[in-house]
């Protein structure tokens, strides 16, 4: 899984380098697929329940599962969340980043930073002997702390969350991004989870578009999404989707 995670990290780095005003999300999808296949891996997302691309590219009010397209051209100030998965030798890696296109507003910078901080808090809670919802509670608490510090009532998405991962991309258990601690399965060394909070700058209510994939905020507020694949080990959480050498 670490090898698959390195492929994902390399792919997200290539996408991030290319993501700028005037580039389409379809262009970024082509870069992602080329990078994944050049590493001898297969895109997890392409063909998954009919999904047509190798990355999810969610722009501004799109929360998750945005479909890349040549007609979706990035503009200065856009906020882009890119979710990417790869399969290598039967094992999956899954990670997401939120990218600033050009110069974004201070509010969008804070939103992305709060979401990333919530992910990191969730990762820290992925230790042997903890319960699954200890991660949920850590994510929620971090988001609430950021909201208080930023003076913004961030919306915390509850319909979508993290998941088990290994020989399949989505495995049990579902990992909520909110919840009371001390519930759910006990975490043991060898377990692997995708930890992926999503926050909005407004309401947490979402709507799925007619394409059957793209999820947007109901009030049009912007959204951010960060994710890592994490293994529970005796030495603490090990992030499997960090860049090589990290």
From TrEMBL:
GO molecular function, one term: initiator methionyl aminopeptidase activity
Binding site for a divalent metal cation 2: 94, 163, 196, 227
Pfam family membership, one: Peptidase_M24
PROSITE patterns per the UniProt record, alphabetical: MAP_1
SUPFAM superfamilies: Creatinase/aminopeptidase (SSF55920)
Catalytic activity: Release of N-terminal amino acids, preferentially methionine, from peptides and arylamides
Annotated positions binding substrate: 65, 170
Residues that, per the record, bind a divalent metal cation 1: 83, 94, 227
Listed CDD domains: MetAP1
Co-factor remark: Binds 2 divalent metal cations per subunit. Has a high-affinity and a low affinity metal-binding site. The true nature of the physiological cofactor is under debate. The enzyme is active with cobalt, zinc, manganese or divalent iron ions. Most likely, methionine aminopeptidases function as mononuclear Fe(2+)-metalloproteases under physiological conditions, and the catalytically relevant metal-binding site has been assigned to the histidine-containing high-affinity site.
Enzyme nomenclature, EC number: 3.4.11.18
Required co-factors: Co(2+); Zn(2+); Mn(2+); Fe(2+)
Keyword presence, Protein transport: no
Source organism, top-level taxon: Bacteria
Peptidase M24 domain span: 1-234
InterPro entries linked: Creatinase/aminopeptidase-like, Pept_M24, Pept_M24_MAP, Pept_M24A_MAP1
Top enzyme class: hydrolase
Subunit architecture: Monomer.
Name of protein: Methionine aminopeptidase
Gene name as annotated: map
């Amino acid at each position: 899984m670490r090898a698959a995670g390195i492929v994902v990290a390399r792919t997200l780095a290539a996408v991030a380098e290319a993501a700028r005003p005037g580039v389409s999300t379809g262009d970024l999808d082509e870069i992602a697929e080329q990078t994944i296949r050049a590493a001898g891996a297969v895109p997890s997302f392409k063909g998954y329940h009919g999904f047509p691309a190798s990355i999810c590219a969610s722009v501004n009010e799109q929360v998750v599962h945005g479909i890349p397209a040549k007609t979706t051209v990035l503009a200065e100030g856009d906020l882009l969340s890119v979710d990417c998965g790869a399969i290598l030798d039967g094992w999956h890696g899954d990670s997401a980043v939120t990218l600033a296109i050009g110069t974004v507003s201070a509010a969008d910078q804070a939103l992305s930073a709060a979401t990333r901080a919530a992910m990191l808090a969730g990762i820290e809670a992925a230790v042997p002997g903890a319960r699954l919802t200890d991660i949920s509670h850590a994510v929620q608490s971090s988001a609430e702390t950021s909201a208080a510090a930023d003076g913004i009532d961030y919306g915390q998405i509850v319909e979508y969350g993290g998941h088990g991962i290994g020989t399949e991309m989505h495995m049990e258990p579902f990992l909520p991004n909110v919840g009371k601690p001390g519930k759910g399965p006990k975490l043991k060394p060898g377990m692997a989870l995708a930890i992926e909070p999503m926050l909005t700058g407004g309401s947490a209510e979402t709507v799925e578009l007619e394409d059957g994939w793209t999820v947007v905020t109901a009030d049009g507020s912007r959204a951010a999404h960060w994710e890592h694949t994490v293994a529970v080990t005796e030495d603490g959480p090990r992030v499997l989707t960090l860049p090589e050498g990290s």
